[in-house]
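sry for the spam today, last one i promise. struct tokens for design, 306 residues
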């Protein structure tokens, strides 16, 4: 009876949202000289789509976007859109701490083949909740695409409170979701309880997605889905279908691997795994550096167990 109820709930409440399920925050592969590796990017896109992701997220933090030039960002986005060829929706990261600059970039970019933007809460400036509201209001008024807010206090030193996100969602129909990466389960529940019907709550914490789906989240925008793709997407789908015994088994299978991905920062861990999988190299751009020999060894040992 409980599983039947959960299956009914998830199928009726969440099935029609464009960003339900697993989105993958794609890394940007680089050649050894630091230039963008387009061929490996194609290989990565094929890998994640073939293994079940529901949509692609280009130019997020995992893509090392702060170190990409504007021309490189456009090149990466255009290639992902072209190589995806309409197979799954595409979301583009478009955020920052200069509101006017983001509004200008929205007008400048070619959004053909892009289905939404992911916009992080302003970092470093530390705006108030009213400042956060006015920032996203300006973006919503400038952008015709669906917008996913991104709350990641560990990176931004600020927190989008549920009341602010709900205010934005109620006032702007194109604000359709939030990627919530605070790790605060009480706040997560507040989001779920107060969100309007069109507004999806998405996990930004790969190690919490199963319990978060259990309390009403619609899915995840994931780092781990770059490399542990098949198991991770199967886990998320099982949770969304209310099959929590299966989801729990995969959660604990993947948990150590997820921890290793973040032991020395993102995307150093995931690029290490992708190199082991022969999908792309592990080159990073400074100030990021490769994982230590000890972490690399731990990743190799973990990969032999799965």
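last one done:
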């Amino acid at each position: 009876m409980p599983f039947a109820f959960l299956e009914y709930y998830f199928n009726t409440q969440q099935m029609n949202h464009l960003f339900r399920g697993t989105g993958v925050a794609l890394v940007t592969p680089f050649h050894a000289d630091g230039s963008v590796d387009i061929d490996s990017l194609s290989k990565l896109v094929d890998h994640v789509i073939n293994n079940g992701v529901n949509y692609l997220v280009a130019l997020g933090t995992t893509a090392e976007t702060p170190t990409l030039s504007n021309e490189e960002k456009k090149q990466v986005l255009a290639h992902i859109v072209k190589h995806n060829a309409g197979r799954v929706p595409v979301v583009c990261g478009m955020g920052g701490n200069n509101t006017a600059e983001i509004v200008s970039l929205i007008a400048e970019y070619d959004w053909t083949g892009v289905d939404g933007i992911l916009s992080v809460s302003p970092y470093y400036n530390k705006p108030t909740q009213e400042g956060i509201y006015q920032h996203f209001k300006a973006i919503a008024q400038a952008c015709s695409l669906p917008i996913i807010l991104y709350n990641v206090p560990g990176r931004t030193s600020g927190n989008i409170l549920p009341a602010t996100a709900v205010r934005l969602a109620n006032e702007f129909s194109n604000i359709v979701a939030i990627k919530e990466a605070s790790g605060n389960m009480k706040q997560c529940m507040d989001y779920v309880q107060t969100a309007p019907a069109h507004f999806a709550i998405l996990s930004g914490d790969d190690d919490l997605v199963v319990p978060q789906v259990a309390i009403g989240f619609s899915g995840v925008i994931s780092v781990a889905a770059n490399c542990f793709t098949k198991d991770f997407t199967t886990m998320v789908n099982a949770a969304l279908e209310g099959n929590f015994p299966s989801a729990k088994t995969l959660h604990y299978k993947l948990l150590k691997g997820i921890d290793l991905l973040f032991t020395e920062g993102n995307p150093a861990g995931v690029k290490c795994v992708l190199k082991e999988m022969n999908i792309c190299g592990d080159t990073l751009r400074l100030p990021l550096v490769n994982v230590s020999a000890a972490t690399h060894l731990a990743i190799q040992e973990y990969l032999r167990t799965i």
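Confidence is low (pLDDT under 50) at residues 1-15. ok im logging off now
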